[in-house]
Structures are given as C-alpha cells and as structure tokens.
Design brief:
Four copies of one chain form a homotetramer. Chain A is α+β, with helices and mostly antiparallel strands. Chain A has one domain: Chorismate synthase AroC (Chorismate synthase, AroC fold), CATH 3.60.150. Helix content of chain A is about 25%, strand content about 25%. The first copy, chain A, contains seven helices and 18 strands. In chain A, the strands form six sheets. Chain A has a five-stranded antiparallel β-sheet with strand order 1-2-3-7-4. Chain A starts with a strand and ends with a helix. Chains A and D meet through helix 7 of A and helix 7 of D. Strand 11 of chain A pairs antiparallel with strand 11 of chain B, so a sheet runs across the interface.
C-alpha cells in the first residue's frame, strides 16, 4: 500500500504488464459529469507508442474499457473502473530478468520486497505501461477541470541537455513532438536517435502549467499543493526530481529577487511575476501553477551491463533484449498532465468542503 | 485537511505562532520505544534561533512538554502529544499584515482560503515556528530508527549559490554551522550577513542522506519512497524543489551513464555507484537514500515591497517590521532530517506488514 | 467516497448491477500468499442464487476473473483486481423505478444524491450483486487467515423470528441451509415460502464467530475491533444492527453477571465465559470473536406499495416486477463471513507493525 | 492506529487518565465557524461526574483549554487542539492492576498488545475520561450543525432492563436525568443505587435522534451512514451493540411491515413511517436518523472477582478499589450525541464535494 492517490477522489491503479489487464478505479467522482470517450482516447493516444524513433515498437491498442461508474455518457456516482486488456504480450523476452536484475530497474528491489513472488514479466506492476491507466484517470479529471475553466498542458523542456527555450504560458506547443521550438525538437530527436543507434537511452525534463485555478487550493504543511502534486508526479516511474516556479534556482536568489510583488490587474489581485509557481504557503494564489519534473534516462539499454546473479550471488554481465523506448520523455508528457490533473482535481474537491457555507 | 502525514504512523501538527501553543500528535508509535528527552531537546536546539547573524532574535525556550503517550520513559502505545507553549509573542508587529499581504508569504492565500478568518498573527499556522513540532516528531522517529541501524544526517549544500563541496556520506559535518568545509561555511555566513545588512534574505539547498536502510521500503507508483519523502519535505515551508540521487542532472545523462551497476560487496548485493539515490522503482535498494531540497529565500525582508491593500483593492508599498531570519537554511537542516525520519519510519512500519510471515 | 475499506489492506468494490462488470481491487496483500481459485469459487457459490424457494431465479455464473495481482497461483504484491461480468441483465424490468422509488430501497436517496444521474438499473451500485465482489475479497482473506489458524464461520441465527438454538462454537452448521438444527431450518424455509407465496419477504439474523485469533488485534477508541468489524458488516446492504458477545442483552445485566472471569486453561490466560465476544477495550483477548448482524426483510416485494412519482410530485401506487429474493439471509451468510474476514485480516496486518521488534 | 475518525474532518483523541493531559485535535474544520465556549462547557458538564448516586466521586473541572485553531471566537482554518489537564490523579489506587487484570477491562489485552509498556494507571488511554475530549469535538460539531438546522439529542432508553417508554422525536427529555418519563427515571436510579449498594454495576441503552438532515449524506457499501455512525459510536468504551431504526426487530418483520411508504408531506417527499431510521441504501432520506447503542455494565465492581496473576500465571482473586460509576449510561448520553455529531458533520462536509457544481 498504497497504489492509491487522493483525499477526495481515490485513484487506484492496478495491473501488470503481462497480466490479463491493467486498469484504474476512481472513487469519489461526483455524479453527472460528462465524459467524452473519444476525447479520452485521443488523450491516451498521446502516450501510446508510435511509429517513430523514440518509442518502443510494441503495439497496444490501449483501448480503455469502462466497466462501471458511468451511465448515459455521464458519471453515475459509483466508482469508475476502466481496464485495458494486455494483448501483445511476449513474456519470453524477459525470462532472464528474474535472477539477473537490470541496472536502474525495479527488478532487484521487487525481488527482495516480494520475496521472489513478484510478477516481473515485462516489468510487471513496475512497467511504464501502468502510466496508461494513470492517463485514463487524469484524462477524465482533465475533462472535468476544463469545464471549470482549469486547463493543463505540458511540454518537453529538455532532452539530453538540449533545451526548448520558449514560454509555456504564452507560446504554442507542437502536437507531434510537444515542444515550442521546432528546431529544438529536431535536435532532441537527433539526440534520441543517436542514443538509440548506440544502444543507449537519454533523459529529459517535462514542464507543466495549470491555468485558471482559483485561489485557495491546497493548504499549509503536509496539505500543500507542492506536496500533493509531487506525490502524484513521483507516481510516474523514472521521475527523480520536481521543482515549482523557479525551483532550485530560487536557492541562489535573494528575497528581493524572488518575491513576487502583488498588484491589481484586470480588477483582480495578481502577482507581477510568478517565481513561486502559483503557490504561496502551499495554497494556490490564482496565478498559473508551473512545475518541472526530471526524468532519468530509460534504464533499459541494449549495451552489456554489469549485474549480479541473485541465485548464485556472483557478478555477471547482462544484455537486455526486448522492446524499449530510447527516451520516454515524449510519451511521458501527457502522463505528467494526467498526474497534475488528478492532484488538482482532488484539491479542488477538497476546497469545496470549506467554501460551501 | 490535512495537516497529517503518514500511513502507518500519523503525524498531525497543530498550532499558530501566537496562539497559546503549537504541538504535534503522533499516533501509531509502537509501545516500548525509549525516548531520550535530553537527546530530543538537543535535536530541537539545532533549529532554535541563536545568537548569530542568520537567525531571528526572537527567543523561545521551545521546551517540548509531553502531554501523553509515554510512561516510564517509553512510548506506551497511546498517541503521543507534545506541545510547546508560545511565550514571547508580539502580535503588534504584525498588525498591518492582515490587509496588506507580504509578497512571498501565505498572507494573501490564507486570507482568501479562510475567508478572512485566518489567524495570521506572526504567520499563524504558516509560521516557520511550526517546524518545531515537526522536529519533535522527527526527533522521536530518529531515535527509534537509530536503534534499527538507520541514521539520517543533513548539511547545507549551498547558500546563495555558494556550494559546500565535500561528500556527505564520507565526510564529517560541522555542528555549529552544518557544512563539511569550514571555508565554504564562512563564505555562506558572509553572504547571509551581507543580505541582512542590505535588508534582504537569501536561499539555499539542503542535502540529506539516510544510511542503514533495508532493501524493500516503499513501493511502486504512488507508494514510492520519492513521493513519500517529498510529501514530508514539502511540508516544510519555503521548500520549492526536491531531487533524489543525481536528480535533475540525470535528465542530461544517457542510460549507460546513469544506471548503477549491481555488484557484490561484503557479501551483499550493492550498486557500484548510487546515482539513483538508493531508490529503484520507488523501493529502497539498500544503498543510502540521498536527496536535496531547495529553499527559497525568506520572503520577509525589510526592504519596501510592492503589494496591495485587500480592503481598498489598491496597490501600495509595504515595509515589514518584526524579527526574521535572513536565511532559514541553517536552522532548516534538522527540520529536513526530521521530515526524512518521519517518512522513513512510516515506510519501515509499513514494510513490517508484508515481511512478518 | 468511499467504497473502500481498510487501513492496511484496501478493499475497493466497484460495479453496477447492469454495467459491463462488477468487481473488487485489493491493495496491500502481502506477496507470496497462495490463492486457491477453486476454493474461492466454492465460497462464492454459497452466495450464488440457487434452485430453491428463497433466492432470486436470476442466474449468474458469478465467475471471478482475476485481472492482475497474481502470478503462479500466488499473490505477487501488486494490487489484485477481479471482475465478474454481468451477463444476465434485464434492464427493462426496472424501467419504472427511476421516477417512482421503491419503499425500503435506495432509489429515492440515490436519485437525490446523484442528482438524477445514478444508474439504478437493477439496483445499480446498490444491488445485492455487489456482495459478490465483497465475497471475492473476503474469500481471499479467509484463505490467508486459515493458514494463520484463524477460522470464520457464520450461520442463520433467526429468520422471521424463528431461531436456530444450538451453539455456533461447538456444533456443526449445515451446508445446504446454514443452521445447526435441521428442524429450525425447515421452519425457517416454510416461513420464507409462505412470505413468498403472499408476495412478501422476511428478515433475519446472522451469527458469526472468528476463532484462533491472537490477543492484541484492534485498539482503543476508534481503533476498536467492534468499530472495525461494524464498518465492514454495515457495508452489506440490508444490515440494520450489530452486536458483539451478549450485545444488547448486556444492557440488562449487572457487572457481576456480565464480566468474564480470567482463568488459566491449557496454560494460557483465557476467560471462563465469553460475554464480551472476545473483545476487551476494543482489542481481541484471544477468545472467539462473536457477533450477530440483523438483516431487514428484502424491501422488494410484489405487493402493491404506496410511493410517490418524483417527476410529478404526486403519490402513487407501485408494483414491483422482477426477480427478487424473498429472504436474503441464507445467501448473506458467506457475505457476513467475508466482511468479517476482511476486517480481521486488516487488523492482523496492522498488528504486525507493532509486534515485529 | 488509529485514534482518528473521519474522512473530511479528522478527530484525533489523545491522553491517558493520569498523564499530564488528555485532549483532541480536529483537523479540517472550515474557517469562520463561531464556537461558543460557554455552550461547549455546558455540554461537557453533562458528562462530568456529579453529586449523585450513579457517578464516580472523582472530581475534575474538565475545563477545555483551546491551544490553537481559533481566533476571535471563530475557527481559523488551522487544526483545533484542546486539552484538559488531569488534576485529581490518584495513581496509587491502581497499583495492583498491572499484573492482575480486571475482568471486563482492557487491562489484559493492553498488557499483551503493548508488551507490558501500556500506561494503565487509572485505565490509561482506555479510561472513560477519554470521552471528555470526544465531547469537545462532538460539542463543536453540534454547534456548527445546529446552525445548519441539524439537531442531535439522546436519552436513556433503558437501564438494567427498565425502559423509558415515550417517543424521543416528539417528547421532551429531562435535563437532570435524561429520560422522558420521570417515573421511569426514578426506577432506573433506584436500580443503580441498589447495584451500587451491592458492590455491583448495571448497563443500559441510549437512544439518539438526528433531525434536520438533508437527503444525500453517506453512500453505498462501506460509505453508508450506518457504518460511519457505528465506527464513531463504538469509539465509546463499553458500547457492545448498535441498531438503526427498528434495528434487530426488523429481523422479525416482513417486508410489507418494515418498508416505509413514500408520501408527500408539506410539499416534500417523506416516508409515512420511519422504520429504516432515516437511512436507505446507506444514505440519509431526510427523515430523522434514529439509533440505539447498548452499553454493558461498568466492569469495575467492588465485589471480589476471579482473575489471574500475569507474573505468576496463577489464578487469584481480585478486589477493585478506587472510584467508579455504578452505571455510566447517564453520563454517556452526551457522549453518544457527540459521536453522532462528529459522524454526521463529517458526512455533511463530504456531501459538499459532490453538490457544489
């Protein structure tokens, strides 16, 4: 425990890569919310592996099958469960992973934690495939949030050290390859292709912004929006860091450089700058919430790597076969949006408890 | 909701800066655990304001009074509540903060969230003073963890861009000013003094390491150690970023550069490097857990700042009087240790549920 | 929120009577626990509608399909999700229930709560069918508990005022009709048949006993075993009361009549009597936990009943067609066992956190 | 874990009978709610021991000291903590209880659970005194609920088998001794006095009604109002049973006798009778919620009782000295109201999440 996220909705993700299905249950969704399944499918297709250099050739329809929780196109108040059947399973590829753990993967830690009983075929419950049900939950939250005027978008901010300059708030993000500057995107794709050709992988940074938020979501101490969003975003495998607003850079600044002055704009209290990333004292201040998440390079590389044989206790060399993304960052962009959507919607519902007097 | 942290213990922090008391309740502490109150006081004194350049001149004994949960020097199985009475309160200093919010503070967001009913005197529930009860809870967890061979230590890794080089794992950390290299520390103190003399403040980074961990704490997805520790650490006011292992730097690396090869050392499975910060697939791998948290500069500065008057809706200039730290980073070092201790102990108790067969 | 039960495992039940599927997710099951699917099916078949006087003629295979959470016949540490596909759906029968609520049912309250968006076809999420996934979760917990020496059994203690005398602890319970005394069972069946022939239904009481429990499960105040078991048992539709040990009868006794004297038996501390139902101060005392749950008569009866039309706001008369049990008590016996198993296993896992030092 | 109750507010009770203090923290109270401390004191005084035959001669001021969570007479959005200092402690009386457990008490189960480290002086965390902080939390919730038109009242329905006839909904309840019929009350007091004079104690039943509830609180399955209220009420030591509406009696009825017909009254949908106790499908139906809780007789009696010496493992005879109530039922009446208030207010806040669209 626990695969669950949320105080006001409860999102529980289940499934293993090569089990009959993966899926998600969302409990606590208010009744009467329309869910556009085509829009949901379109959102999911953004993380689906595609015909390009940077994603695994494994093909999955990733068709979400709503089992319950809806009636007449709307939520009905009962928990919503959706599953995705695993079709294209090739357990043979992973036969040697049980006893020789892949560096950078959960093979070893799962082996010990589950005392040899883990189902690690295809990465099992640790597979990147589990981000598909996360996207189902997040996609549903996104649709509801949008009707409340809250929008969430993310972009690749960097891959392998190559940055996409641009301003996520004001500039348009590409659809095929989610960057603002096409040239930066082209360089990133070259970087990925080069890594792939060398049997290697590469990491990156995803930036996400949430606009249209009311003042007052989140709360002090452990209730803060930073902690709430972090817990959701660290639920995405491969994330190793997160920062809000100017984040780590604020550690180099003085208060006079970092504080955001309050002003009146369009009749509302706003801040002139947004170095705090839209969060003060753990609470949204009405400005856009901005954060960045660091993704480590995919640990699955085809180069020989040093590992140990857990049965013999001896060091050995491992060569990983199978289908892997040389860089998961492009496909992770909607996943970050999904995690943010879940965290924000959960906080929004929590806010209603205190407001409605 | 919620000021509470934890799945297996539940740490609830309460209090406002100028209310009768602040404090903490820890529910779920196993019975029979010795708590050395002198050691706890010594731990708390590390965050207490002192006679130095970098901390507020406000003096508080910060004496924790255990109200219940102990008998004969040991936990008794009932919830442990400790309070710290607020003695040196000077609410007058903050009289003008109610309607003119301080930039970078929770004044405005709390004003809206609590609909004008927030007690913001001295920062209220958002005050840095609330990290004292966090340290009580964390200090108690630290003592218990130490008996299990798990130790936690933190240092100032940077202030105002000045870094402490050194290796936190192998080198000794100073006690007066918690850095490894005295010269780096001296430069940081100069940096703080300069900011103070200019009516300003400065931010920094704290690095923390947890050693002696067993393999198997945490879990996949939302159960991961990164998310668990983040939620605790973002509970500390002023934290705006966190990263594990090489963290954001891993986004620039290739898989072959970032993966930690498994090896056999002293008869145990270990990794040759520790770029993952001791966590794989959200689960501890037996190597030290290492993370860094970015602290923004204290928003309270004595320079005039632009703000708005919430009653008139007009822009105005604010000058903050009162007692404030020009840099909270030195005093925040034990607070980061405390947050880590709570998160780790909670995960350790959770681990027992699956192990004990 | 919340359809979930548990602090240490988390059981989430989902589905509507006429949706594609109903099911359950159990998070937090320790890895390596064998699950015998045949035994699980046999347990589920005890609540399945049968060829007899007292159950609905609706036929469902109620075949649980494990979607994930297992590998090689054992739990693998990942959440276990099982679904039961709804095959024999006849939504037409319920067409008139949307606007004319059935007395004693959730039709009206669900209508208001979900603002007209509830899926009440076949009772929707409120259907007795949802006790099938409860039995999946409980059946799995029962299997694990049995290996720890903890056994759970229940019987019909009364139907329509006809009581089964006998002692649940020492006497054998029938399998076809779960009572101790065959004659009492025959009278109960007559009572049910008579009610059915008169277009009516009848209620009853189920008694449940848990043996083999260690001392120390549960805790004081809100952590007590009575509250934990109650929350699980009230999760079963139609339960309107619960009592532990002598229960309501203890309200008539004196302390000297109600207290259970401690004694030494077989070298262990035991109590001479067990009026407290195996729970003292909310904590198991090692004696069998005994409780009784009161089931109201099935609200679905074929007699005309007075109701209102929610669209016109006028009073009207309702005649319910469809398939209904004249008495759900016989089929609810395994459901009560399942609820008890979930509550006890959750408490047992919680106990491990404090023990394992 | 856990001494906490609630999904939307979180009520955590702490303290031991002879520790410095007992108290409660309520997290999640919306800001801006007035709390009348005199009214709260008056509510608490209803459970205070008094100058009468049926309560312990131990005198405690039971003065609640609000430590935080309020400002200017209103909740301020931060957690509210109140403590009651233990003044009149006489630990000597209980010296022999450590190794010879009192029948009917938690002495033995706590001894085992906490491995000899429990603080059982005066009953420790299991003492009836812990119902005082429960009343603080409940009293605060009652005040807020009253402003929403929701009122809660309870009465002694029976003591030692002597019943108070009357209708709790329509008739007035006495203040000195909370029954409707003075004569029934007089007989109950005689019954208590007789038990006391014989060194014995006696149990009883408390009936509670909640009026003014909106339709829609609670939910299906584990979210039902019966389970929510039960969990709160079983948090009161000595409660061994609970039933809603006609409760156990419904087990003897037919559906046609038990169903409550819907009708239109005063322009609203209501039910002609209220056998379901205001709850259908786990959800409030707008009618009064009615329940009864069975209290066992106080286990502390002055007659010699058989027990065992846990140090020697031998059977022995125990005589309990000290101050005890011969019947806790009269003092428990406000405690039941408090538990109901907490459960109802928590459900009311939960309802706001789904409503406010």
């Amino acid at each position: 425990m626990s695969e669950s996220y949320g105080e006001n909705i409860q999102v529980t993700i289940f499934g293993q890569s090569h089990a009959p299905a993966i899926g998600v249950t969302i409990d606590g969704l208010p009744a009467g919310e329309e869910i556009d399944l085509d829009e949901l499918r379109a959102f999911l297709s953004r993380r689906a592996p595609g015909n390009n250099a940077w994603s695994t050739p494994r093909k999955e329809a990733d068709e979400p099958e709503i089992q319950c929780g809806m009636a007449n196109g709307k939520t009905c108040g009962a928990p919503l469960t959706a599953i995705i059947r695993n079709q294209n399973t090739r357990p043979g590829d992973y036969a040697n992973l049980r006893t020789v753990p892949r560096p950078g993967h959960a093979d070893y830690t799962a082996y010990v934690k589950y005392d040899g009983s883990a189902d690690m075929s295809g990465g099992g419950h640790f597979s990147g495939r589990l981000t598909a049900p996360l996207c189902i939950a997040g996609g549903i939250c996104k649709q509801i949030l949008k009707r409340e005027g809250i929008e969430i978008k993310a972009r690749i901010q960097a891959i392998g050290g190559i940055e996409d300059p641009g301003d996520i708030l004001t500039e348009e993000i590409g659809t095929d390859f989610p960057v603002i500057h096409v040239e930066a995107g082209a360089k990133m794709q070259e970087c990925i292709a080069k890594a792939l050709s060398e049997g290697d992988s590469v990491g990156g940074i995803i930036e996400c912004v949430v606009t249209g938020l009311p003042v007052g979501l989140g709360g002090p101490l452990f209730d803060g929006m930073e902690g709430r969003i972090s817990q959701a975003v660290f639920g995405i495998p491969a994330v190793k860091g997160i920062e809000f607003g100017v984040g780590f850079a604020s550690a180099k600044l003085r208060g006079s450089e970092n504080n955001d002055a309050f002003c009146i704009k369009d009749g509302y209290v706003q801040t002139e700058t947004n170095r705090c990333g839209g969060i003060l004292g753990g609470i949204t201040n009405g400005m856009p919430v901005i954060f960045r998440a660091a993704f480590k390079p995919t640990p699955s590389i085809s180069r020989p790597q040093k590992s140990v044989d857990l049965t013999t206790g001896e060091e050995t060399t491992l060569e990983i076969k199978g289908r892997h993304d040389p860089c998961i960052v492009p496909r992770a962009v909607p996943v970050v949006e999904a995690a943010a959507a879940i965290a924000v919607y959960d906080a929004l519902l929590g806010r209603r408890k205190e407001e409605n007097r």
